[in-house]
Design goal:
Radius of gyration: 17 Å
Number of helices: 2
Structural class: mainly beta
Shape: globular
Largest sheet: 12 strands, mixed
Helix content: under 10%
Oligomer: single chain
Order of helices and strands: EEEEEEHHEEEEEE
Number of strands: 12
Distance between the termini: 14 Å
Strand content: 35-45%
Length: 221
């Protein structure tokens, strides 16, 4: 992938406007699970913008993802780049073009960028090591799923506004930091077991070791 690792396994990289006007939290509400408690598939819309001295860049994509435990498959719907498989337990990324005639997949070491698709709330918290526990800011609905609105750090300035389902899946997040913004949001969501075939290259592909540049590993979300 040609996007930065800290942008998305979208770096699939992220969304639509986070609902800041959600209903106030009730006293009996509690935080959703820290990590996803179910395998799932989803279509994610991602956008990002980066401002640096003298220039600004922005972009986005819509990606299909599948998550099972510590593994993630990401397929671009718009940019039509390579498929990416991430395995956080093995600390590796496998990248390939399903349509390639040479049938070669490249394996790279996984970087340390948070991956909220896999890590859930733990992945969001990893963006700010000094942040206190997230604050509940109400409830909302994303991709027909009810979710709890959470605030990390100082949303809108140096923090995150997210909506996390009862299964611990981050359905929407808006990350705002100095000179960098990223959003992602689920357009559809389906909880359930994912076939093992999704987390390996297609039959006939050979895996070779690669040397990934810094902008590889589209693992973040």
């Amino acid at each position: 992938m040609k996007t930065r690792p800290d942008l998305s396994l979208g770096l699939g990289i992220a969304v639509a406007v986070v609902a800041l006007g959600a209903a106030p939290a009730r006293a009996e509400e509690s935080l959703p699970p820290e990590r996803p408690t179910t395998p799932y598939s989803a279509t994610m819309r991602n956008t990002f913008s980066i401002s640096e001295p003298g220039r600004m860049s922005s972009g986005g994509d819509t990606i299909e993802i599948r998550v099972s435990g510590a593994r993630l498959l990401e397929d671009s719907r718009i940019m039509e780049e390579k498929s990416v498989i991430v395995d956080m337990e093995k600390r590796e990324v496998i990248e390939f073009d399903p349509k390639a005639t040479d049938k070669v997949a490249a394996r790279f070491p996984l970087n340390d960028a948070p991956i909220p698709y896999i890590q859930g709330r733990a992945g969001l918290a990893a963006y700010g090591a000094s942040w206190p526990a997230p604050k509940i800011a109400g409830t909302d609905e994303v991709a027909k799923q009810k979710c709890t609105v959470l605030h990390y750090g100082k949303p809108g300035e140096n923090g995150i506004t997210a909506c996390v389902s009862k299964q611990g899946v981050v359905l929407r997040a808006k990350l705002e930091f100095p000179n960098f913004e990223r959003e992602f949001e689920a357009l559809d969501f389906d909880a359930g077991k994912q076939d093992e075939k999704w987390f390996r290259p297609p039959d006939g592909f050979t895996i070779v070791e690669g040397a990934a540049p810094e902008d590889k590993n589209s693992q973040a979300p």
